[in-house]
Every structure is written in C-alpha cells, then in structure tokens.
C-alpha cells in the first residue's frame, strides 16, 4: 500500500490568516444535542485560508476564476524540493519547501513549463510585497498556484499530487485538500 501524505493545513478557529483577511469562524445551524434531527454546521472565512489555490482573477479582473482552473494541472506527478534546489527542477508540478523565503520571479521565469507551483507559506510572494511579482510571473505562465502547504513530514522527492479546489463560481481562490502519494 503506498504512503499517503496529507499536506493540507488543518482549519480551526484562530488559524492565522493574511493581514486584513476574514478570520475563520464556525457555528452550528442545528445540533443533535439541542433536539435537532441532525448536526449542521456553517463556516465563514477567506477563500485564502490555510491550504488554498489562487485563481488568475485574484490579481486581474480579466483572469479566470477558480472554477475554471485546469484540474489536470492539480493531479499528477510532482516533486518536493527545497527553495535552494528550485532552479534545478524540471518537473511540471513543483512543491517548494521555502524556509520562509520566496523564489525570485527570475527563477520562476527560468523554469521549464509549470502546470502547478506550490509553497509551504501563505503566499508565493513575501508578506510585505505590494507588487506580487511572483504571483504575476506564475500567472503569465498559466501556472496553478497552491499555497499554505504543510510539507513538514514529507521527504524531498517525487510523488503523485492530488490537490483540488472547491468549485466556487466567480471566486478568486479556494480552500484545497492536498495529498501526496509516495511511489
């Protein structure tokens, strides 16, 4: 049986969010303990909470919204690499152990065609960025952006990736459940 790594961050009250984003909130519409026929919960949060995907619409009104992302980019062979080895990779799906840093846009632009680029930070750009140069470089290339990964238990190497956004029509991003399957 192959090893499966859940590389999604758990979502819970108090999860850190991007400055200015809506914090995660959860509540109950009905509870068995209150005499209801079933438990039904509801949530409110930014679509960029925890492990999530950005759509091109995130930084451009003419860009595709999340339900239009190519799902074939979200499933397939992927590699996990440290940022220091990013320039060496030739994979179409790359998940980067960043050490808290961001790849310079020039490194991104020099990579072979990328279907998906993922990072273990809240953004592919530094938190203090106002130009969002790495987002823009990836979007120019048509690369799906996956952020907020938990790669802490995953050795560097080759895997099969499955990471799907919710089909949120007209939105700029979506939470994602992401897993890696070891060969």
Could you walk me through the main structural features you see in this protein, from its secondary elements to its overall organization?
By secondary structure, the chain is mainly beta. The chain has one domain (4-11, 47-181): Glucose Oxidase, domain 1 (3-Layer(bba) Sandwich). The chain is 8% helix and 31% strand. It has helices spanning 105-110, 133-140; strands at 4-6, 25-30, 40-44, 52-54, 75-82, 93-97, 116-119, 144-147, 157-165, 173-181. The strands form 2 sheets. A 7-stranded mixed barrel has the order 4-8-7-6-5-9-10. A two-stranded antiparallel sheet has the order 2-3.
Write a brief caption for the model.
This protein is mainly beta and 183 residues long. It has 2 helices and 10 strands; from the N terminus they run ββββββαβαβββ. The chain has a single domain, classed as 3-Layer(bba) Sandwich (Glucose Oxidase, domain 1).
Top CATH class: Alpha Beta
**How are the strands of the largest sheet arranged?**
4-8-7-6-5-9-10
Would you tell me the structural class of the helices and strands? mainly beta
Give a short account of the largest sheet: 7 strands, mixed, barrel
Q: What's the count of strands?
A: 10
Portion of residues within helices:
under 10%
CATH superfamily: Putative cyclase
- How many alpha or pi helices? 2
Total separate domains: 1
Radius of gyration: 17 Å
